């Protein structure tokens, strides 16, 4: 039972990060991890704190790449917390392996559905998105696009491309659902210099 709860926490954490539903994923994963650490008689607050610190360090590595330094430290802290929780290295290793498999499968499925980790846009160079093909550098004033209508040219799962009335093709992010290509959308908010859109209620 504890292993299932821990796996749910891993699944919720990855799903929350990749689908940008940070609040929902965070609440579910925290609840699952708290449940996991409260079920075992061998667990302690120290084990929970070590695991929490490890999780925070791994997430920090995702958003602030440090060439793996924070990631490795996070894994060590997390593993230490798991071992302390289970009272033995073997039992902790089993939960870690099962949780890792669940995480890998979740990540694979979401990638196939078109989702990606939030750091991809910072470290991946998007080739062939040049001016000659109609793509514009996204260094323009994003605030100018607030409330504007656009038409998607790729599916938004949740990130994709849309063309605006001024002819620019920019990257946009679906705010609440998967949106297909050639659909009318409206910019509803701007966060971290990204345009978040929703499907328009009227046709285009």
From TrEMBL:
<feature type="domain" description="NfeD-like C-terminal">
    <location>
        <begin position="143"/>
        <end position="199"/>
    </location>
</feature>
<dbReference type="GO" id="GO:0005886">
    <property type="term" value="C:plasma membrane"/>
</dbReference>
<feature type="transmembrane region" description="Helical">
    <location>
        <begin position="48"/>
        <end position="77"/>
    </location>
</feature>
<dbReference type="Pfam" id="PF24961">
    <property type="entry name" value="NfeD_membrane"/>
</dbReference>
<protein>
    <submittedName>
        <fullName>Nodulation efficiency protein D</fullName>
    </submittedName>
</protein>
<dbReference type="Pfam" id="PF01957">
    <property type="entry name" value="NfeD"/>
</dbReference>
<keyword id="KW-1133">Transmembrane helix</keyword>
<dbReference type="InterPro" id="IPR056739">
    <property type="entry name" value="NfeD_membrane"/>
</dbReference>
<feature type="transmembrane region" description="Helical">
    <location>
        <begin position="6"/>
        <end position="36"/>
    </location>
</feature>
<dbReference type="InterPro" id="IPR012340">
    <property type="entry name" value="NA-bd_OB-fold"/>
</dbReference>
<feature type="transmembrane region" description="Helical">
    <location>
        <begin position="89"/>
        <end position="111"/>
    </location>
</feature>
<keyword id="KW-0812">Transmembrane</keyword>
<dbReference type="InterPro" id="IPR002810">
    <property type="entry name" value="NfeD-like_C"/>
</dbReference>
<feature type="domain" description="NfeD integral membrane">
    <location>
        <begin position="3"/>
        <end position="112"/>
    </location>
</feature>
<dbReference type="InterPro" id="IPR052165">
    <property type="entry name" value="Membrane_assoc_protease"/>
</dbReference>
<keyword id="KW-0472">Membrane</keyword>
């Amino acid at each position: 039972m504890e292993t299932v709860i821990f796996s749910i926490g891993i699944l919720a954490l990855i799903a929350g990060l990749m689908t940008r539903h940070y609040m929902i994923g965070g609440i579910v994963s925290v609840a699952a991890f708290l449940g996991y650490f409260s079920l075992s008689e061998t667990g302690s607050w120290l084990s929970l704190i070590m695991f929490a610190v490890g999780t925070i360090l791994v997430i920090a590595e995702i958003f602030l790449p440090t060439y793996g330094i924070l990631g490795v430290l996070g894994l060590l802290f997390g593993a230490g917390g798991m071992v302390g929780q289970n009272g033995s290295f073997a039992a902790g290793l089993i939960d870690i392996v099962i949780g890792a498999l669940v995480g890998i499968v979740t990540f694979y499925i979401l990638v196939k559905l078109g989702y990606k980790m939030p750091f991809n846009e910072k470290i991946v160079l998007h080739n062939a998105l040049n001016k000659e093909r109609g793509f514009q550098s996204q260094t323009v004033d994003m605030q100018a696009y607030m409330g504007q209508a656009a038409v998607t040219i790729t599916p938004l799962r949740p990130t994709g491309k849309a063309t605006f009335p001024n002819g620019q093709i920019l990257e946009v992010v679906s705010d609440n659902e998967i949106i297909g290509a050639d659909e009318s959308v409206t910019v509803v908010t701007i966060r971290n210099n990204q345009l978040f859109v929703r499907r328009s209620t009227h046709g285009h």
